[in-house]
Structures are given as C-alpha cells and as structure tokens.
Amino acid sequence: MPDRRDAALEMEEHVTDVHILAIDLAKRSFQVCATAAGGAVLFNRMVSRVKLEAVLRDQTPCIVAMEACATSHFWGRFAQGFGHEVRLIPPIYVKPFVKRQKNDAADAAAIAEAALRPNLHYVAVKSAEHQARAVAFRTHQSFVGQRTQLINALRGHLGEFGLVVAQGPTGLKTVAGVIDDDATDLPDAVRDIVRLYLDQIAVLTQKIDDLHFKLRAATKVDDAMRRLCTVPGVGPVTAGAIMAFAPDLRAFASRRNFAAWLGLVPRQRSTGGKTRLGGVSKMGQADIRKLLIVGAMSRIRWIIRRGVLPDNWLGRMLGRKPRMVAAVALANKMARMIWAMMTREQNYRMA
What we know:
Number of strands: 7
Structural class: alpha/beta
Number of domains: 3
Helix content: 40-55%
Shape: globular
C-alpha cells in the first residue's frame, strides 16, 4: 500500500494552478517552490535531479524562474523544450526577497516572489553554441593565467640564486642558455626543475597560440566578429569575449544601458536632489570590461609614444585626466560604439 506522503507528492506534481515554478538550483538536490497566480504557495519541497526533469516534463506550461547562476542556462533550455516561459533573475535582485534566515526553501520562495515583480530585468537564456564560445574564451584565459603563475614561480626560484629574469614570456628566452652554461652557479637539481618549468610553459604557450589562432580565424568567417575588430583597440580575443558573454545587443534599449551592463558607468551616491557620481560601478560583465579597458590603454600608450596629443576628445581628456581615468572613459565610449555598430550592422567609421 503506497505511503500517504508519496501520494500527496504525486498530487502536487500535477497541480494545474501553478503560475510560477521557482527553482533553487544545485547539483543533485533542487528546491522547487510553486505559486499560484495570486502569489499563494502551492508547495515548496526538495526534489532530486531526476525528479526535477520529470516535474518540468509533466507540468503544464508555466513560468519557470531561476537565478542566473551556474547551470541555469542548461535548465532554461531544458524547460523551454517543454513550452515553459523561462525567467533567469540576477541573484542580486533575488536577495531582497529572502525572508529572515537563509535556506533552500527561503531562497526558492524569494525567487518566486521576485519573478512576480513587473519591472524586473531578466537574463536571456543562452544557446549551447553561445556557451561553447564562452568555454573557449575561458579556457584561453585559464591557460594564460596558468602560464603567468608558472613564470612568476620560476622567476622567484631563480631569484633565490641571484638570477634575475625579466617579466613576461619574452624574459624566458635567455633562461635556457643560462642553465645550460656550466659557468652558472646552480645545483643540478635546480637545473632539472627549471627545465620542467620551461617544458610546461612551452606546452601552455602552444595551446594558447592554438586557441588564439582559432579566434583570429573566426574573425575571417564571422561577420559580427569581423565587424567588432574594425574598432581600434578591439582584437580577436576581445571580439570573442563579446560574442561569448554578451546577449543580443538589441536587447539593450540604449547604448548607455549596454555600458551600464558592462559596469562602465559611474556609481551614484545621489540624495536630496544632489547628484553625486563616483567611480565606475564594476557591477556588470567583468571579462569584457577588462578587455575594453586594456584595449583603450593600448591606444593611449600609442598616442603618448607619438609625443603629440591629438586635437580631439581623447587628446583633451589626456591633457587634464590621469591615463587610467582616460582609459576607462575611452572604454565606455568604445562600448557605446560597439552597441551602435552591432545594432545597425555597420562597420566602424573614423569620426
């Protein structure tokens, strides 16, 4: 004879009055909170991964709300496959609706409450191909970070024996010759360890070059990436990051909204009718923001090396502001240009 609790759970799964199905995501145990159109909670319970698939498959089409976090795009695509409307909510918008103590049930209820708000901004569900671009970019950045870590460790070890190596991969060109020179005062054990470092760095450098070549090759066949690379300061890596992490730029109402999504607009501390603006908010997409600022700084360095500031907006900015402030302002301007170019499908034109 089936247990009464199991029978009750089976009845809950087929509730037809479900308006919002809020899911607090995890790896194996998921908290599911179902609410009616008026906001009343129909049930709030924990389910397994297999059970969640069955719930989304058997539930009549409704609004499925989740936080925009790890695995949310996969579950968003899965829910859309069964006719559900998916709303991915940034976690910062959910936090104010958590009542008292934080637990999975409270988090799921907060997601359901946030999904009822009429003026909330949602994250678009990414396709598998869109996420594949992000994996390629993250892998490239991860390998670059690992190579930098190895180079810094090697420089530190050699410094203990009085060998000072310049920063960056180019500084390693002389290391192989130094350790092979018998005149260098180094123990044999250290020479062997240094060769291990050099071999590992060489492997990572080859992988980084291969990924960079693929990004560069993509700019020749992808019209959007080729268009992005026409902007001064934007290369294949930056273009790949924009294509990987940015949604369709037509989803942003204006160029300022895109710059705000990147965290390149001033943080406001305004009150009492007085406008007080601080530094950039840094609340948006960090990868694209960092690359745009790096590209802007490279343009500024090129201008400064020429010795004469141009008679334009950037030249006047450099004449009265520090370089980093000018670089952030230029990155903001580049982001707005990118929005206009991508939404109008036009290449960069020199003003």
